[in-house]
Amino acid sequence: MTPAALVPGPQGASILWPWLLAGVVVLTLGAGATAWWLARRRRARAEASQDADGVTWVANSSYLAQVPAFAAWVRRYRTLQVVGLVGLLVALVGVGAVAARPVETDVVVDRLGTRDIVLCLDVSGSMTAYDGEILKVYSELVDNFEGERIALSIFNSTSRTVFPLTDDYTLVKEQLAAGVAAFDKDPSTLDFTREGDEKDILEYLTYTAGTLANESAASLIGDGLANCALQFDEEATERSRSIILATDNYVAGEPIYTLEQAAALVASRDITLHGIYGGSDLYAGTPEEVEYRDVVEAGGGLYFLAGDPQAVEGMVEDVVAQQAVELDASPEVIVTDLPTLWFLVGTAGAALLLVVAWRLRE
């Protein structure tokens, strides 16, 4: 079967080397037949020798076959012989089956590996009260993904890549959790002169380091979005690409890119832009919020308020619905050895044989 003909999914249990099991069975049957033939021949020779030499018959001994104790002993002896033979056969079959490698085969194709998602988060002062909750939304999104590559970029006046595109979900969840902890308290409420706030201050400053390199401006939304658009690699490959931007769209300074220009850059790179409005619901309908909504929806993306319970479900459905492209990847065949059952069979047969041998010695 060629790799192209493999159907993804479990292929069932099988024997990897069936010829070895067949060989053990044939050798066992051959050895049994040979032993039977030799025993029969030996018995025939003994009888012939006794006839030639003469047999000494003991008078009045025929009654022994009718003695109940003797007859029971003979039956028990023959039963033990049969049981011992069965134990030997079971042990040999179990050992042969283990040697033949019983396995379970599974064919895995990473169909979701061609979807790339960049989480793009505004960490400016007007957003810090909402960033912790938005990072929790991001974490819920990740919990619903399987195989997608995820990146996180945060920005204020400048941008920092928290982690590049990766399918290491352990790393992703650790960094998102660190972000939730960093924004657990609103930085505007922290007292930088009080020792009790040192831990929270250090977490916040560590997580947002590198986002205020341009001290003359803040909350440059367009520049932050443009940087997120540049996170995608493998430009020559047909892949599904999405950005999930969270901001309140309040700009303080002169950006290189306006929000519209950055959205145009996103569209030119065949990236779908989804938006989460990170400000208070009270600001819904303001010019900044309306502009943000219009830009996202004009590009065909989904737009939600941060507290909208449909945000996670809607974006997950949209990302999963996008076409995943196979990247010349052959199906991966995973073979798992399953010797346990046959090992137990062989062990049980050997144990039975030992018990019978002990009983026969008695």
From TrEMBL:
The record's listing under InterPro entries reads: VWF_A (IPR002035), vWFA_dom_sf (IPR036465)
Tell me if Transferase is a UniProt keyword of this record.
Answer: no
- Among its keywords, does the record have Secreted? no
**Where are the bilayer-spanning segments?**
16-39, 82-100, 341-360
Q: Organism's domain of life?
A: Bacteria
* SUPFAM superfamilies in the cross-refs: vWA-like
What keywords appear on the UniProt entry? Membrane, Transmembrane, Transmembrane helix
Q: Which residues form the VWFA domain?
A: 116-319
Q: Name one Pfam family in it.
A: VWA
How is this protein named in the record?
von Willebrand factor type A domain protein
Source organism of the structure:
Oerskovia enterophila
